[in-house]
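Here is one chain, start to finish.
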Amino acid sequence: MRIQLLGPLSAEVDGGSFVPTAGKPRQILSLMALYAGRVVPVPLLMDEIWRTEPPASALSTMQTYILQLRRRIGSAMAPGSPCSAKDVLATRHGGYLLQLPDGGLDVHDYERLVRAGQAAFETGDDEVAARQFRSALELWQGSALVDVRVGPILEIEIRRLEESRLVTVERRIDADLRLGRHAELIAELTDLTARHPKHEGLHSQVMVALYRSGRQAAALEIYRRLRERLIEELGLEPSPQLQRLHRAMLAVDPQLDVQAGPRRTSTFDLFAA
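Its structure:
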């Protein structure tokens, strides 16, 4: 069995899909998958589906949705399967439990690879860190649950996943910068900063990549444009870290040279207090 949430919803067992077509069962399956291995209380499922206004028939309707999901799982399972749909989507006191095998959920695989990448990053093994982060990011097939109508619980979980994705991109770029791959990163970072126009971490990375590629003027221009944007839109100066990075570039500080090895820091924190 394999469920994928990092992109369009996909759910297969024994080669057969059991993704529901109706909106609310898709929400339930998505939430159950995110909490796989844990009992999901019925009130939490109701909050996701109906927010604060469940109908009088909410409990019986929820039971119908669970029954529909079990039927789809059962129909997709191969004859002679060692477990039943009731084993996969089990009823527990106060809620339901979705049981998946190891490697059965792309979110779990993503988080495992991120942990491995972070551990390598913190010990200075940048090659391994970059490779693990890259493998984690390759699991994404678009925005999380891009084709599922979401309620308040899934909305929070999707924001968490998307923020984790962006942080992982930053850490992977940090590892690549520490490996001296600055020139190869410029195009990617130019795109990222265009999509995240006030993200200081990404801007610090493109500044460093440009500076190390012999493009000091372009790096300083990135800072100037970001500073103008922050002042005009938020009434804020850039952070102290970014200001120190800017001053270091003006002074041609040798700390800006490639520094691979056991540096437990990001590009953005290079000039943190």
